[in-house]
Amino acid sequence: MKYVLYYWSMIQGRGEFVRLALEDAGAAYDDAARSGDGMSAMMRMMDGTKGTPPFAPPFLQAGKLVIAQTANILLYLGSRHGLAPKAEAGKLWVHQLQLTITDLVLEIHDTHHPLGPSLYYEDQRGPAKKRTDEFWNERVPKYLGYFEGLMEEGGKAYVTGRKATYVDLSLFQIVAGLRYAFPKRMKAFESEIPRLVELHDRVAARPNIKAYLESDRRIAFNEQGIFRHYRELDA
Amino acid sequence: MKYVLYYWSMIQGRGEFVRLALEDAGAAYDDAARSGDGMSAMMRMMDGTKGTPPFAPPFLQAGKLVIAQTANILLYLGSRHGLAPKAEAGKLWVHQLQLTITDLVLEIHDTHHPLGPSLYYEDQRGPAKKRTDEFWNERVPKYLGYFEGLMEEGGKAYVTGRKATYVDLSLFQIVAGLRYAFPKRMKAFESEIPRLVELHDRVAARPNIKAYLESDRRIAFNEQGIFRHYRELDA
């Protein structure tokens, strides 16, 4: 079975967390973003009123199933591709961590869109500056400090131990994205999270991820996605 | 096995979505919010660095398991208490809907805290007014219109059909909370979502929910929770 991933064509966005899992697993998938009518097919699927229409992308077609919500897609893929523990306790734990990353991703998005997703950044520069300051003063230390703490137990290679899960792939993306969006702030902060930086490098060196990052399938970071570089927010 | 629910003691907050499921299921649980040292026990569990410490409340102790993230707790409870379909497709679908409700809940919270959760409302009144306008103009019609659409197929009593799931309980809470926080705006909007209003009433009439709502276990809405009534935001 070949999966089809539906997501906006010009950005990494939330779809990237799914792409990283599919790529690391070496799963066969079509990326609707790269097919001629992929975007219109995506819109039609969301407009559907019968069955189980997704509220928003990303969503994954897996045979007859259409699964939306990033963490839910990873829950599904994790079981099938060895990217999560098999036992229920481990599965719930990894999913719980992914949901915490989901919360962090939304807070990252809100740094440039504090007044809501429907207005342009240019119309909310002042509030964005305030929100970004608060994000770096309060939230980054709390979130990244939490994940750094999870890595502290006994020289683990990955968050849950010796095997990578989708959470490790997502944490790679968080570090990479924060470096892109806030190079100065992140540079000053990285000494606080040495284990997460190592984790980033370890994930980047996994053969399938390395090949993916070097391919043209990896869309570059840009100012339409979640991680946006606005110089005035990185001061 | 008796569950223990850990959540802040003075508010409904995110913990309420879990309480509604526990109450509807008639599950035996202790609410840490109602025990003498519940809050300090909760803080100790979050401070732990070993095992699987939660990032934030709510979390549920279920025997040896400690499960955090509202939607994750409901995923766990849903399977055990008949509040979710048993087959994988249905389970993923209901979880996906709950994660969309999670997104909505965060946007509701952001109406009064657009500059972030660490600052007081009083320090962000102007941005809160703008975010609230945008929320009611763009986001409420999109989210509630989506759930209303799911109820349109063939006279279903609940979102997935004849049986209630934790998603129905959560949608009850969304309608109740929006009525509390924005009575004027919600009154004007309710004609757009007749099926969700019916769903709210149907859930409120379920015997265990009815008994819960009339009990002193139901904390009243207030201005420390997610749904806050600020008159200036309801104009």
Describe the structure.
By secondary structure, chain A is α+β, with helices and mostly antiparallel strands. Chain A folds into two domains: 3-80, 3-Layer(aba) Sandwich (Glutaredoxin), CATH 3.40.30; 88-207, Glutathione S-transferase Yfyf (Class Pi), Chain A, domain 2. Helix content of chain A is 53%, strand content 6%. Chain A has helices at residues 15-25, 38-47, 70-80, 88-112, 125-150, 166-181, 183-189, 194-204, 207-214; strands spanning 3-6, 29-31, 59-62, 65-68. A four-stranded mixed β-sheet of chain A has the order 2-1-3-4, sandwiched between helices. In chain A, strand 1 (3-6), helix 1 (15-25) and strand 2 form a beta-alpha-beta unit. In chain A, helix 1 (15-25) packs parallel to helix 3, helix 1 (15-25) packs across helix 9 and helix 3 packs antiparallel against helix 4 (88-112). The relative contact order of chain A is 0.14. The model of chain A has no long low-confidence stretch (mean pLDDT 95). Chains A and B meet through strand 4, helix 3, helix 4 and helix 5 of A and strand 4, helix 3, helix 4 and helix 5 of B.
